[in-house]
C-alpha cells in the first residue's frame, strides 16, 4: 500500500470547496445580476418617460391646433412611446418577482419566463414601435414643413431623424446589455443549483 501514499497526500493537500460558500457566491452573483437589470431598466424608463412627457406637452400646447397630419404624427409618436413605457413598466413588475432566495425550480422558471417575455418585446413589439414612431415623425415633419424656413426645417429634419436613430441605438444597446445579464443569470442558476 505504499504506492498509494503519494496519491493520498496529494488528495489531502487539495483545497476543499465549501458547498455553503459556493451557494453564497451563486446567490451573490444572482443578486448582482438582478440589481444590474433593475438599474438598466430604471434608466430606460427614465429616458422614455421624459421623451413621452416632452411630446405630450408639445402636443397639448401646439398639436391640438394643428392639421390632421400634425395630430396624426404626434399621436403616432406619443402612442408608440406610451406602449413602450407600458411594456417596460410591465417588465419591471415581472422583474420584481425574481427573488434569488426562492426555491431553485421556481426562480429558474421565473427567469426563463422573464427572458421569454423580454425576447418577445425585443423582437416583436420593438420593431413595430420603431416603425410607428418613424411614420409619426414623417407626418410631423410633413405638417410643419410649410410653416418653417428651409434652414430651420432642415435642422428639424436632422434632429428629428437623429433622435429617432439615437432612440433605436439606445434601446438596442440596452437590449444587448440586458441579454448578456440574463444569459449570465441563466448560467448562474444552472451552475449553482
Automatic annotation (TrEMBL):
State the protein's name. Uncharacterized protein
Query: What are the entry keywords?
Result: Membrane, Transmembrane, Transmembrane helix
Organism of origin is: Algoriphagus ornithinivorans
The answer to keyword Transmembrane helix applying to this record is yes
- Residue ranges annotated as transmembrane are 42-62, 68-87, 123-144, 150-171
Amino acid at each position: 500500500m505504499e504506492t498509494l501514499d503519494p496519491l493520498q497526500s496529494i488528495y489531502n493537500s487539495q483545497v476543499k470547496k465549501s458547498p455553503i460558500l459556493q451557494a453564497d457566491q451563486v446567490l451573490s452573483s444572482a443578486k448582482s445580476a438582478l440589481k444590474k437589470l433593475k438599474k438598466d431598466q430604471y434608466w430606460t424608463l427614465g429616458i422614455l418617460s421624459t421623451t413621452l412627457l416632452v411630446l405630450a406637452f408639445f402636443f397639448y400646447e401646439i398639436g391640438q391646433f394643428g392639421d390632421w397630419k400634425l395630430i396624426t404624427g404626434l399621436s403616432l409618436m406619443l402612442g408608440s412611446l406610451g406602449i413602450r413605457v407600458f411594456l417596460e413598466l410591465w417588465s419591471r413588475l415581472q422583474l420584481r418577482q425574481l427573488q434569488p432566495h426562492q426555491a431553485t425550480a421556481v426562480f429558474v422558471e421565473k427567469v426563463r419566463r422573464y427572458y421569454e417575455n423580454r425576447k418577445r418585446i425585443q423582437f416583436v413589439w420593438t420593431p413595430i414601435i420603431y416603425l410607428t414612431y418613424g411614420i409619426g415623425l414623417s407626418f410631423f415633419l410633413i405638417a410643419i414643413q410649410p410653416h418653417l424656413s428651409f434652414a430651420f426645417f432642415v435642422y428639424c429634419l436632422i434632429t428629428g431623424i437623429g433622435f429617432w436613430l439615437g432612440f433605436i441605438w439606445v434601446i438596442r444597446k440596452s437590449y444587448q446589455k440586458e441579454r448578456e445579464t440574463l444569459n449570465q443569470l441563466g448560467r448562474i442558476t444552472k451552475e449553482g443549483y
